[in-house]
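Researcher: For the record, we're logging two predictions in this thread. I'll number them. Prediction 1 follows.
Model: Prediction 1, sequence and structure:
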Amino acid sequence: MSEEKKSLNFIEQIIEEDLANGMDTKNLRFRFPPEPNGYLHIGHTKAIGISFGLGEKYNAPVNLRFDDTNPAKEEQEYVDAIKKDVSWLGYQWKNECYSSDYFQQLYDWAVQLIKDGKAYVDSQTSEAMAEQKGTPTEPGVASPHRDRSIEENLDLFTKMKKGEFEEGSHVLRAKIDMTSPNMLLRDPIMYRILKKAHHRTGNDWVIYPMYDWTHGESDYIEQISHSLCSLEFKPHRDLYNWFRDHVYKYSKDQYPNSPKQREFSRLNLSYTIMSKRKLLKLVEEGVVAGWDDPRMPTISGLRRRGYTPTSIRNFIETVGVSKRENVIDVALLEFKIREDLNKTANRVMGVLNPVKLVITNYPEGEEEILIAENNPEMDAGSRKVPFSRELYIERDDFKEEANRKYFRLTIGKEVRLKNAYIIKGENCIKDEEGNITEIHCTYDPLSKSGSGTEESKRKVKGTLHWVSKKHAVKAEVRVYDRLFSDEAPDSHKDKEFMEFLNPNSLEKIEAYVEPSLQSASIGDRFQFQRLGYFNVDDDSTKEKLIFNKTVGLRDTWAKMNK
């Protein structure tokens, strides 16, 4: 095998083999087919990246198709959110398609299957049909309605379409093989009666096609060359091919190309739930503030938290394409956003747990403007930061007494204030309960950063960030931890995933930030020096700044759980 072929993933190898065997590159066509019954999450980004990535690689069209066959769970809100998320990730679809656009064609094909003796109306209860289905080791039992005449089936199916029957009274089933070792081939349901308004077709239909019937034939109508899906659909491939091959007989002149289904492993992430049904439960029960809550693994939640399209696409590229299921450590996703924001986020200063610092030998009433670098990685220039006698520093950055390994401020030792002066701890003031309320220090006037003096070049081991008390802007900072405390909250047979909710997944704190952030806009991302990466939340206003913590500078979770 050539080195070039080795570098291809297995899906690309399949495509290359098809091209080598005579497939015209003009016939390559892909699709991303979400069901609009919830918001997209990080697990979907793998499927999105694979399909759109192939489109980019082969200069082939990619459709965004909504498999909207269940009006009981689907909403226009989800359609709009999916379109927004795919666009935000940087992908452009060729055609916006809906399975509901094909309802008449699907119905006409179903009628043709009935005429060919390949489908029948079953009038049993769902419980009776389930009992007859058999087991993986025992064959199923034929329905007593399996041998209804073609005329009776056509009459019943027509009346189903007209709404003459109640929900649950009849279904249309494909007539395949009740003894097949693949239970999906044991006369699967093609249509059910569902008297609910559809978000696009309204009340035009009271029967709706099932996913397995709709999905493959939608691929066929759109002339998709490679129908790519996750591994749980591998057992469905035989049924996909059965439907495809029978419909091809009727429509090969109109639709000459037959799609092929191929499967890849899903993206599973530690400390994360990927089920839309379970994510919906978190929303409905008020565990989170909505689908875009920054603790959610949804794309909208990640976007609101401060993740970038680049970081997510780099994450998907690193994960790669495989046939084997595995769980990806969420630390990899966090690494990718740190890597991106380190290059693109400007540096600022904010104090999250403030204590007052007074420079006793700095002239009262005096102020000065210091120059601070924005982001050296992107040559973003500098900004102006006000400095005065009274500052805020982090409470954790001071101890009255400390050992030699403590390189922050303590009595009798020196540290540098970022972009400013070297200071020396002198004493502190406490309240009646012993809590430190004020720290006093002195500064070296000749040690100003960048001033060119010998004192300014003097090295000290600690550097602290700070904010001028007089100029500080009050802000709410939302600090997030993982929503679940268990690495695999969905894997316990004896416990519900809700039992592993982390009660400390959100902490809202009052912080102070430098005045340059007063003009920050929603979505702007920053590195709060020494603390981590933060972005301006959607709830933020000019009157009340709100920041989300995207990720820390280092992975503290691993250390905590050793």
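Researcher: Logged. Prediction 2.
Model: Prediction 2, sequence and structure:
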Amino acid sequence: MDITGRKLFVKALLAEGVDTIFAYPGGVITDLLDELYKTDGIRVILPRHEQALIHEAEGYARATGKTAVCLVTSGPGATNTITGIADAFYDSIPLVIFTGQVSLGLIGNDAFQEVDIIGITRSICKYGVTVRERKDLGRTIKEAFYIASSGKPGPVVIDLPKNIQTETGDPEYPLEISIRGYKPSTGVHVGQLKKAWKLLKNAKHPLILAGGGVHIARAEKELTKFTDATGIPVLTTVMGKGAIPTNHPYWIGNTGMHGKYACNKAISECDVLFSIGSRFNDRITGDLNEFAPKAQIIHIDVDTASISRNVVVDVPVVADAKLALSKLNEWAEKIDTAAWMEQIKAWDAKYPMNMPKKTEMCPQAVIEGINEVFPESIVVADVGQHQMWASQFIELNGKKQFFTSGGLGTMGFGFPAALGAKIACPKKDVVCVTGDGGFQMNMQELATSVTEDAPVVVCLMNNGYLGMVRQMQQLFYGKRYEITCLKRHATCSPQCKGPGPQCPEYAPDFMKIAESYGLTGIRVEKAEDIVPALKKAKKSKGTVIVEFMIGWEEIVLPMVKGGSPIYDMIL
């Protein structure tokens, strides 16, 4: 017996094991919402904005490893998801985004809330398609879940016209799928791995660079086992941090634009660089002509297109990181890296990763407080200075996860992604590290936190500025602080050189914002109050905003100026 498209839609979600969907209502998806209302087993989350909705789905996907599902209406509902789709695309997060669309007969007529969302998102998703015939609906949804989660994961956009949702057709949902032209790598070339191992085994100064692909493949244990067996030092990208525990004797730190001096120096001096799950973006490499100039480079990545795209490598290995490392562990044996490790430690001792205590509220102390109070948690960082401080000083011991927006660098990501992680893992503490600028981009999601009973500890570093750009203005633009001061009023001097007694009051008052949602706010102005405030927040039943009043002059160091070699650091 035939069934409607809306019934098949819900049947498909249940068949794919979907238990949570992030949705915002609108006219052309009301049929789908009505069917979800009648369905047991799928929790429907109502955020307060579609951009936040998709970031919440990202947090859910990263916390669970599952493909997260979004449902939004046509027109502005769909276009509001674009930033999140791009964010998920660059950070390889598996999402299936269902967008409502006007009926097929209205497409192309500038109908109310009609946009070509597939055309708009074509370059920022793995796959996008408008379902134009009811008979294709089941197969299209099956393909969407397969494409989103296989190979290099990413977002898939399925556009569902109103009439497709109500038309009747085949009730069957496919059990298997075969897509001509899409055959992601499922094996590993043993010959290439043997070449890689031979290079590593004979190296004097070998180095492992672990990227976010290690986390995506859930290959942390395999990497740690390989490091233990070989003694090769490991450094990580921001997205790769935690690929091995940060207290591991062979982990030396983060590399890149704001990485450790010892890490960037080690890349410049190593003779074999073994990259796993990193695409060598410009924040890691700096000047490409000066990147790892003495090294032969091995690159493991599940995405063929990522290999030798930015950095030409000597031994390419197209494979899932977990599969490749499991095979390498069969051959792994100790390599003499004692002298090499001593050299790296000497570089680290010369320029350690420590912030000078310039002000009463040092950002490093805030992150160290989070380490002390939340040893087994999910920490989600927004984008900005606080993100870099978190990536520099957060401790990841195997029982803690760290999420942030890496490839796109999306301000406003942090708080909704933290909510998504909390919805996924309700028994786990979730901490959001954010800034006063980024938090304001999606702070309406405090309502979602309340209604969905998803308490998060928001650690808000307030310096009154859009700090990362202000830092660049300070260092490279003669302290011309154009539109980065968040206290700025129309009456302020257009040539302001920094805060003073003449400055207006900061708006908003985050303590009153918390109160307006029935939540707790704690303002912290002294270093000795950091840990007590965090302990109080941890005991709270609802979301707590802990506002840390940090100095406006605090900057993230070390720093590599854009386009410079990574060894040329501002220390």
